[in-house]
Write a structure and sequence with these properties.
The termini are far apart. The protein is 41% helix and 12% strand. The strands form two sheets. An eight-stranded parallel beta barrel has the order 3-4-5-6-7-8-9-10, surrounded by five helices. A two-stranded antiparallel sheet has the order 1-2. It contains 15 helices and ten strands. The protein is globular.
Length: 396
């Protein structure tokens, strides 16, 4: 029987009294509650894209019912009480599915809402590139109100600025989306504010600029993705322009730190890599080599990658995209391995991992992390262990 996943204190105490005091070590990433990751054939068999829009999606469809049951299972059975979504996910379908799931849950358990941390985002919306990003004040307010309607909620726990590296300018954010987010918090539409995206340098710049403009800390949380995994630990290892790592920077600003995509958006699996992935060919090839080493050693690279991600105690919660009950069950069982384990936040990661991994898993991990001749040694040397998110945004 799957028990509730362990909970973890925040990375640092957050001064906002409305912010949660602790979080489950894994959160439910809700981008999977959409057609985003279907092949063209899968989409065709499901009725085509027109049937998978917020206004036309069938609540009784077998896929939708599976997603609703997945959400129920994650919350009720596994104690995964943090859910992360966005208007961008399915262009609204993810929020709609959550709303239907909450409607059923809250009817049975009226007091359940206050135990959940439900996060969504603003700034990224439609499939059409011309309408995909909008960081204006009015659109931000309207988006929050729409998200509340879709999810059948009175408030959002953490409202996050989504992929701000795609904003036309920093000025647009400082005069549009961010003041609107502050207004939403003032009106009680959300309790806390966060920022999320890929380039750490961009988040650093925005956070510094908001403090300068508004005279106080605006954001309570930072969510990054693909920066704490087997091939990229730059969240804790790469100095920014002020000499600190992004993790240390957020901690010094009393911000909780969360991470997402520990499988590097599909690179750290035994499956074919997504064709849309922005990684370099060199990194993709390195990940294939790592997967082969794992396979030859009888280790599942995805399971190993998740445990490596969860082993950093300074990351309060790691968000995993999970589309069905089986995936939730596997992730929860992996998370349970951290139950009752004690380590200080300064403890060497390798030693802590050794207490979590089986002997053959640890041996494989040591091969993968070998900086001289491991599968990632060349991309670590030439810097292609990550991709240039700022360059990708400018080219959009």
């Amino acid at each position: 029987m799957v028990q509730h996943v362990p909970r973890r204190p925040l990375s640092v105490p957050v001064k906002n009294p409305n912010f949660p005091k602790d979080l489950p070590i894994i959160g439910l990433g809700c981008s999977s509650f959409s057609h985003f990751f279907w092949s063209e054939e899968e989409l065709r068999q499901a009725g085509g894209s027109n049937q998978w829009k917020p206004d036309s999606m069938d609540r009784c469809h077998v896929y939708v019912q599976e997603w609703i049951q997945t959400i129920h299972y994650a919350i009720d059975t596994c104690g995964i009480t943090l859910l992360d979504t966005a208007p961008w996910y399915g262009h609204g379908t993810s929020e709609m599915v959550l709303g239907w799931a909450f409607e059923e849950l809250f009817e049975k358990k009226p007091n359940l809402r206050k135990t959940l941390t439900i996060n969504t985002k603003v700034g990224r919306y439609e499939e059409d590139p011309k309408k995909q990003f909008d960081f204006s004040y009015d659109t931000t307010i309207l988006s929050v109100e729409r998200s509340l309607r879709r999810m059948n909620l009175e408030y959002i726990d953490i409202l996050q600025l989504h992929d701000p590296e795609f904003s036309p300018s920093l000025k647009v954010l400082l005069e549009g989306a961010i003041p609107a987010m502050i207004e939403c918090r003032k009106r009680g539409l959300c309790k806390s504010l966060g920022i999320t995206g890929y380039p750490l340098e961009t988040q650093h710049q925005i956070i510094c600029a908001t403090v300068e403009k508004f005279g106080e800390k605006v954001f309570d949380q930072a969510l990054t993705y693909c920066h704490y995994n087997i091939h990229d630990t730059s969240l804790f290892s790469l100095p920014l322009e002020d000499g600190r790592t992004y993790a240390d920077f957020t901690f010094s600003n009393d911000m909780n730190l969360m991470a997402a995509a520990p499988l590097s958006m599909g690179l750290l699996t035994h499956n074919e890599h997504p064709t849309w992935h922005p990684a370099s060919d060199a990194l993709k090839e390195a990940c294939k080599k790592a997967a082969k080493i794992c396979e030859e050693g009888g280790v599942n690279i995805s399971s190993l990658a998740i445990r490596v991600a969860l082993s950093n105690l300074r990351i309060s919660c790691t968000i995993l995209g999970m589309k069905n009950i089986e995936q939730v069950k596997i992730a929860a069982e992996t998370a349970k391995k951290f139950d009752n384990l004690r380590a200080t936040k300064q403890e060497d990661g390798a030693e802590f991992l050794k207490s979590i991994l089986q002997t053959n898993e640890y041996e494989i991990w040591m091969k993968l992390s070998n900086k001289e001749n491991g599968p990632f040694s060349s991309v670590w040397r030439d810097g292609t262990f990550r991709w240039d998110g700022v360059k990708d945004a400018k080219a959009f």
